[in-house]
Amino acid sequence: MDNSVRYAIGAPGIKWGATEKAEWLAQTTIKRSYLEQVVSKVHALSEKFDIEQYGALSYAPEKYPLFAIKTHHWDKTKPTVLITGGIHGYETSGVHGALAFLALKAEQYSADFNILVVPCVSPWGYETINRWNPNTVDPNRSFYANSPAEESAALMQLVQAQQTHFLMHLDLHETTDSDESEFRPALAARDGKEYIPDIVPDGFYGVGDSENPQDAFQKAIIDSVRHVTHIAPADSAGNIIGEPITQEGVINYPLKALGLCASVTDAEYTSTTEVYPDSPRVTDDECNMAQVAAIVGALEYLKQHQ
Q1: What is the average per-residue pLDDT within 12-23?
Q2: Annotated domain spans of the chain
Q3: Is the pLDDT of residue 2 over 90?
Q4: Model's pTM, two decimal places?
């Protein structure tokens, strides 16, 4: 898509109002089942972990309960870590990578860490394969006081309810071809701005915090993931998604200033993982396992440096 192509909704240069937002919502459809594909897997973990429902989305509470999974026997002397997925519901391996970590790896780290996992923060987005919620709000730009996204507000309340310091937070994401074909053009149209195309990175990359980058921690994640999938190269300008790389496969964002999920705990160690599921070089399972490898690499680093 180039700059001359109009998004199907709205007029160029004019922010969306209620009419355009309603038109956008009307063209969304349910494409998969959160209850069947996600909640069933959560309940299947109930013998190994503590399952907590921390809320439900008002759009359809019976369809969109919100679940957190915790390792047994929390110990205040152990560091606590948070894993989140599905902030953007369309980013599938974030959800199923978090669930795979619970099924395959979490128990072996429970002696060293209290582990809290929220596999799908945005279940409506999961079902409609969408970045936004029904109100055209991006939950991953909404982690601040009086959040306009109930998905974000519910997660912030869950974090506060733990009444503990978090050492680490990994937020599991994907960068997809649809970012350029749909979601960034929609964002530009919604905000009345010009859409400027970018290049979708071919491979995995991570996003650290520009205010607290933790370069060695980010490298440990990259080195773990490279055993599962390829690492995204920088473009000809030395950037990934418009940001300069700080090392192979890593860029930094000001997490708190942008209202990003990875800022929600004020943890010392944070990273947003970005898997590329549209590469012909990967399978869905490899994408899920790349997320698992990112978590394992992060936890192994913490075990060695705490």
Answers
A1: 97
A2: 12-69+99-164, 166-306
A3: no
A4: 0.97
